[in-house]
Amino acid sequence: MTLSFQQKISVLGEERNKAALTEIGRGIEREGLRVLAEGKLSEHGHYQALGSALTHPHITTDYAEGLLEFITPVSYSVEQTISQLKDIQKFTLSNIDGELIWPTSMPCFVDDEDNIALAYYGTSNIGKMKSIYRQGLKNRYGSMMQVIAGIHFNFSFPKSFWQTLKSTEDSSLSEQDYISAGYFALLRNYKRYCWLIPYLYGSSPAICPSFLQGKETNLPFKKSESGYIYLEHATSLRMSDLGYTNSEQSALRICYNNIDEYISGVQEAISLSSDKFAEIGVKVGDTYQQLNANVLQIENELYAPVRPKQVANSGEKPSQALSRRGVQYVEVRALDVNPFVDTGISEQQIYFLDVFLTYCALKESPESLCEVQSVCEKNMDDVVVRGRDPKLLLDHNGDKVSVKEWGTAIFEEMKSVAMLLDNANGSDKYQKALAFEFEKINDPDKTPSAKLLRVVNDNKQSLTDFTLQQAVTYRDEALNSDYRFYSEAYFNEQAKKSIDQQKDIEQSDTLPFDDFLTEYFAQ
């Protein structure tokens, strides 16, 4: 028996099942670019006081050496997650010699993209592999893409959530297969409705002209008095063709019908050769220019607004981890850094994401996504460049509907999910978050993208000046606040421990790097 959306709501709302909704797991990966006081990119290497970027559990770097990434562990409290992130940022800001963390997704002024240093992870085989992967990204897409920041939101239900539904449906699937199927139903619905995320949270409607660095674009940019270029109705240029896209990947059709099809599609993609990337060369002389000449060097290069995830063991590929142990959580990747809060994501956003992702898990999710995936992607593409355009119509099952019309229908259904979560947790935070976000559906001027454009156009303020003011305010608040969850001693200990761990990894390597790489890809 397959339960309907309302039946699932009813089952989970029973007193005996409420605990299944009190242990939602969350983790945040927040990226932030290190900049100087005048708003230029820092060219300083990763600070020793922060520990090893290779092994530190909370503070690392992403693509560029100056692009910090803060990682919170799995937590079952929204407030705790935010407190952990605040502490990580406080320690970091205390140890980067007065530098700031740029609080928006699109980078500051960069006069020459050759000044963007790739992230360095030491001399171990795994460290070299991580750096060469980034060299490949630079050669394939240019350095400017390596200084774009985002928020990754990791989300999981407790096993009791899935066990309750499995028992009620009397499913014959194993627990692992049932959970994976449930997460893939969530993923399919997320793909259908994920245009909502850049509409509600897109915060990059304008960019510094230096970002283009001669790159051709057909986007109809306007120019503000302060010199920034923008699209009048854009929400998230980070998610547009200017940001994380890969034209070579556009031909891939990785399907989300089930875990086996998904893994098969990913594994095919990482073995699919690219004539375009082959022109770069792999090892030119003694220097690697990329890990290989395939469409994807490794699975992480697959740019997707959401991913199914399983914690991988050492040396294990993500798809191998999924194949062996099923889906453990999902990673939402379509979030811009929120410039209006110091952590880049607010508690209210997290409460809304809980509602939205639970809705995606409970809502009927037919396995027909492959046939309409391009439609879903076009809806997303349209919203990132003109989501606030009152004339924009999205494709909803073949019908042309406005953002307001479709958004209202989705929010109406999410009300019962918010109420379910509030009842289970003895709060009203979920319903309040939903009501707050619904105001943006009714009034696009309340979206963060519209608020930022008012700074640029109505206030005639330089976006650089505004962003710097926010960065200075957030730094000062962090430095003047107390630690909430961790302590300075904890971070100092983790920094030392991570440096020792990196040295141990480097000393334990026995294979020459070429052999290590061959062995890795032979798995």
Describe this structure in words.
The protein has a single domain, classed as Creatine Kinase, Chain A, domain 2. The chain is an alpha+beta fold and 523 residues long. Helices cover 44% and strands 11% of the residues. It is built from 17 helices and 14 strands. A hairpin with a 5-residue loop joins strand 2 and strand 3. The mean pLDDT is 93. It is globular. Strands 1, 2, 3, 4, 5, 11 and 12 form a 7-stranded antiparallel beta sheet that branches. A 3-stranded antiparallel beta sheet has the order 6-8-7, with no helix packed on it. A two-stranded antiparallel ribbon has the order 9-10. The two termini are 39 Å apart. Helix 5 crosses helix 11 (369-386).
Topology:
Elements: H1 5-13, E1 25-35, E2 59-61, E3 67-71, H2 78-93, E4 100-102, H3 125-141, E5 151-156, H4 159-169, H5 175-193, H6 196-201, E6 206-207, E7 222-223, E8 229-230, H7 259-269, H8 275-278, E9 283-284, E10 287-288, E11 306-309, H9 318-325, E12 329-335, H10 347-362, H11 369-386, E13 393-396, E14 399-402, H12 403-425, H13 429-442, H14 448-456, H15 463-479, H16 488-508, H17 513-522
Antiparallel strand pairs: 1-3, 1-4, 1-5, 2-3, 5-12, 6-8, 7-8, 9-10, 11-12, 13-14
Helix pairs in contact: 4-5, 5-10, 5-11, 7-9, 10-12, 10-13, 12-13
Count of all domains: 1
What's the CATH architecture name?
2-Layer Sandwich
User: pLDDT under 50 segments (min length 5)?
Assistant: none
User: What percent of residues adopt helix (DSSP H or I)?
Assistant: 40-55%
| Category by helix and strand content | alpha+beta
So how many helices? 17
General shape: globular
- Report the radius of gyration as a whole number of Å: 23 Å
Strand fraction equals: 5-15%
Largest sheet: 7 strands, antiparallel
CATH topology category name: Creatine Kinase, Chain A, domain 2
